[in-house]
Amino acid sequence: MTPKIERTITEITKIKDKIMELQTRLKALGQKKIFLENEEIVALCRKENLSEDDLAAYIMSRRGAVVYSQSAQMAPSPDPAVTDCENKEGSGNEE
Q: What b/e readout covers 6-35, taking b as 16+ CB neighbours within 10 angstroms?
């Protein structure tokens, strides 16, 4: 092989090694972030004297709020004026 090709192969190897090293570091930092977030949540719960059941109920209520807001964005609520008109028309025609 020519020296240019060998240098290029060497550079590729070095870059791949560096990428693997950085991916390992990124994974470790991600795990550390989650640990610190969980530690903060535990400290807040202890400060507020929340039981496990209280925390579970709070989390479930927040999940419901998130689902509600996402569905509200997907399907806009009906216009009250149109709904009122439809109800008045429907009740007059039923007789």
A: eeeeeeeeeeeeeeeeeeeeeeeeeeeeee
How many Å apart are CA 23 and CA 1, to the nearest integer? 31
Nearest CA to 38 out of 76, 93, 54, 30 is that of: 30
Look at the alpha carbons of 47, 50, 56, 59 in this order and tell me if their dihedral is positive or negative.
negative
pTM: 0.53
Interval 6-30: pLDDT, tens: 999 999 999 999 999 999 999 999 9
**24, amino acid identity:** T
CA distances to 28, 41, 45 from 35, rounded to whole Å, are 11, 10, 15
